Amino acid sequence: MAWTRDEMAARAAKELQDGFYVNLGIGIPTLVANQIPPGMEVTLQSENGMLGIGPFPYDDEVEPDLINAGKQTISELPQSCYFSSSDSFAMIRGGHIDLTVLGAMEVAENGDIANWMIPGKMIKGMGGAMDLVAGVKKIIVVMEHNAKDGSPKFIPECTLPLTGKNVVDMIITDLAVFARPDHHSPFKLIELAPGVTAEEIAAKTTAHYIR
Fold it and tell me: I need a labelling partner for 211 at 20 to 30 A (CA). Which of 72, 102, 177, 195 fits?
């Protein structure tokens, strides 16, 4: 049985460590904010200029002017602070963010990631993904294992415009988890969702990986 979006986010949250500064991408990664283990101090950073993002607010707690980089309403914490977008990107480009969790349309077996555009479809802009994959210490991708048409998303080589080359450290899908110790090593299948078999993963994945 495949993991739900919340379960995928919870699995990503297991990679957090006390004291980490973390950036969460749009989509499933935003759910990680509600999965931080109790007692762990993690500071969430947003490209639009905020440190210290709280859990997603309930409907009666929404503050319309308080949003993350994905234009979603968020909550603040007593220690939250605000600054310019230029300062925010200086944090990212300066290597001060420990981990980022991003979505993706495709990830290649060599760690390339494509997650910012599909040719021919309207986009709002490239966002901060290119800066994140270039400046953050650890890159985790959370995505569905297969696209809506059933095609694999973990593939030998990306077909869409790249966000970054050889940057992904861990892939968490609704079916499995792949990881590698460094950017010179292949990905290894390290975990399966409940009821999912290694044979099922092999049938739904075209990328080379270690079993």
Answer: 102
